[in-house]
């Protein structure tokens, strides 16, 4: 059994959250992005975070280009401790966010080729990186069921732990694990029946593979 962390992103109800708890999933993502089929409103997110307060699977809020004051207020309302940034947020923004709130920051880096890895140097204030497929102009920033060339990350040497995301499912996860040894794996579309609708059986299948 390996110790790779698992994050299931885009959770919207307690039934799927119970599944994650039972399977000892490490993190679950709450997507605050209105055009996403996985979007969750603040009240529903508050309810899930409250429901989860004495359980082990940790909530992570996922945001794209929020105004800083708006995000500060949302963190205060929801009591989020982990924040994942998927937009054009720069190091100054991240520094101010951390100074204002007691939060752990995950910064998504979109990957298309090796040159994209240079972006790592721009974010000294983050706690984790998440490497994801680089979406095209008409695609959502995440959750597109598309992968990048994972070999780009082979033998990567950075000082911060990192997650990998983008089109990961039960059919390709073993290939990923043969190439890479990430801190964590972030899965969304790979455990869905359709965008935004998670399937508990698919979650169990992929958790069994990762922790098998």
Give the strand content. Answer: 15-25%
Q: What is the number of strand segments?
A: 10
Count structural domains.
Answer: 1
| Distinct helical segment count | 6
CATH class: Alpha Beta
Give a brief rundown of this model.
The protein has 212 residues and is an alpha/beta fold. It has helices spanning 14-22, 42-51, 68-78, 91-100, 173-179, 200-211, and strands at 5-9, 27-32, 58-63, 82-85, 104-111, 128-133, 162-164, 184-187, 192-194, 197-198. The chain is built from six helices and ten strands.
Write up what this structure looks like.
The protein has helices spanning 14-22, 42-51, 68-78, 91-100, 173-179, 200-211, and strands spanning 5-9, 27-32, 58-63, 82-85, 104-111, 128-133, 162-164, 184-187, 192-194, 197-198. It has 212 residues and is of the alpha/beta class. It has a single domain (5-211), classed as TIM Barrel (Alpha-Beta Barrel). Strand 2, helix 2 (42-51) and strand 3 form a beta-alpha-beta unit. The termini are close together.
Which features does this protein show?
212 residues, alpha/beta, TIM Barrel, 8-stranded parallel beta barrel, two-stranded antiparallel sheet, 6 helices, 10 strands
What is the secondary structure topology, with strand pairs?
Layout: E1 5-9, H1 14-22, E2 27-32, H2 42-51, E3 58-63, H3 68-78, E4 82-85, H4 91-100, E5 104-111, E6 128-133, E7 162-164, H5 173-179, E8 184-187, E9 192-194, E10 197-198, H6 200-211
Parallel strand pairs: 1-2, 1-8, 2-3, 3-4, 4-5, 5-6, 6-7, 7-8
Antiparallel strand pairs: 9-10
């Amino acid at each position: 059994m390996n110790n790779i962390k698992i994050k299931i992103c885009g959770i919207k109800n307690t039934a799927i959250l119970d599944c994650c708890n039972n399977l000892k999933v490490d993190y679950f993502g709450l997507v605050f992005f209105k055009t996403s089929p996985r979007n969750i409103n603040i009240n529903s997110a508050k309810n899930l975070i409250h429901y989860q307060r004495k359980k082990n699977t940790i909530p992570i809020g996922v945001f794209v280009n929020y105004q800083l004051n708006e995000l500060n207020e949302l963190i205060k309302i929801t009591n989020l401790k982990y924040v994942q940034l998927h937009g054009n947020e720069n190091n100054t923004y991240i520094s101010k966010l951390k100074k204002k709130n007691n939060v752990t920051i995950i910064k998504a880096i979109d990957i298309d080729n090796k040159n994209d890895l240079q972006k790592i140097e721009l974010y000294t204030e983050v706690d984790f990186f998440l490497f994801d497929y680089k979406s095209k102009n008409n695609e959502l920033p995440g959750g597109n069921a598309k992968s990048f060339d994972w070999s780009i990350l082979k033998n990567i040497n950075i000082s911060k732990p990192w997650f990998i995301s983008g089109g990961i499912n039960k059919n390709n996860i073993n290939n990923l694990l043969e190439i890479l040894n990430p801190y964590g794996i972030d899965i969304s579309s790979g455990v869905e029946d359709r965008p935004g609708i998670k399937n508990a059986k698919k979650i169990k299948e992929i958790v069994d593979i990762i922790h098998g």
